[in-house]
Amino acid sequence: MPSPRSTDPAGDGIFLGGPRAWGFLQLTLPSPPASSVNSPSAARPLLPQPRSRPLRSGSSKESDFINHVEQKLLAISRRYENRFSATLSEEENPDVEGRGYKNIGEEIRDLDPVVDVVWISGTTSLQTAFLLTIALTVMTSLPSFPFMPRPTFQLLQKLDLAFASLLKGVSVETGESLPGSETGRSRLSTTEKVRMRGIVERTRIAIVEVAGKDGSLADVSIVSQSRMTDTEDDFNVTTEGEGMDVLEDESSHRRWEMDIARVYERTIVELGMALDVSGPGNDIWMP
After folding, report:
1. Where are the alpha helices (DSSP H) in 212-278?
2. Stretch (H or E) spanning 79
3. If you count Cβ atoms within 10 Å of the first and of the last residue's Cβ in the chain, which end, N or C, has fewer?
């Protein structure tokens, strides 16, 4: 998934302008597979390169950044609240920004670039506050729309990488210390970690419930629906025979089942160590 880099080459500021809109069961909660937690990161980082230095507290740049992100999140919140008006035609409601979301993919398409610009800020306090708000928004939105695996898991994976990096004080993708955390230690407070844990727990439960709403993961309806809503290059769609379609659906279901088990897997491990609990499998993760 392409990721625009809106960074200042000198590391002194953030470009906030420019176009950034781009597209994108059993009810027992599985623990993340241990092997996947320690697997090497993808060659291309999902998170953009952050500023070399955090925004100075109280500066005009920090104020501009906060206003920019808050306005973006407010617009997303309004479109979510107006989701029941999404059936209106463009003629009846020509204002795209005023129309409600038709599906969670549209909402994620708006949230994803906000995650990027928040990460680019390189400012731990702002990253933590805004990313927790975005994660809470995703968790709240999941039950309101039909399940769309690909965009949902892509955004959750990006949030997982961001949270795990903030908890370590080091990018889990590149191994580099985060701006303002040159010692490689987390600067998150216990309150922030506890709040993060609550959102992670509830999101993992919500994703299982939403994925199983129309049947178990063995039911081909989820993947079939995804194939109609996601882009063609996301799925190897074949028209050569129904038998091939069934095999493809079964393979995709196995993939989604693994993705469900991996939701916030890195964050779980880091929170387990940060809050001095046993980590994956502990009762704290399986309420």
Report:
1. 221-229, 242-261, 265-274
2. helix 60-81
3. C
Token pair, residue 235, equals 């799925």
Instruction: State the Cα–Cα distance between residues 75 and 92, nearest whole angstrom.
Output: 20
**Distance from C-alpha of 1 to C-alpha of 222, rounded to nearest angstrom:** 22
Q: 170 in helix, strand or coil?
A: strand
Query: In this structure, how many other beta carbons lie within 10 angstroms of the beta carbon of residue 94?
Result: 10
> What pLDDT, in 10s, does the model give residues 69-86?
999 999 999 999 998 775
Read off the tokens for 111. 């949230």
> Of the candidates 267, 21, 67, 78, which has an alpha carbon nearest to the alpha carbon of residue 164?
267
Q: Say how far apart CA 245 and CA 230 lie, in whole Å.
A: 16
Q: Give the whole-angstrom CA distance, residue 261 versus residue 129.
A: 26
CA distance 284 to 287: 6
What are the distances in angstroms from CA 183 to CA 137, 147, 177, 178, 187?
32, 41, 7, 9, 10
* 3-state SS class at 152: helix
Q: What radius of gyration, in Å, describes the C-alpha atoms of the chain? A: 19
Nearest-10 crossing angle of helices 265-274, 149-168: 30
Buried b (16+ CB within 10 A) or exposed e, 206-237: bbbebbbeeeebeebebbebbbebbeeebbee
Distance in angstroms (rounded) separating the CA atoms of residues 80 and 108: 11
Rounded distance between C-alpha atoms, residue 250 and residue 233, angstroms: 18
Residues 34-62 have a mean pLDDT of: 77
SS3 label, residue 270: helix
Report the mean per-residue pLDDT for the chain. 75
**Pair 12, 139: CB distance under 8 Å:** no
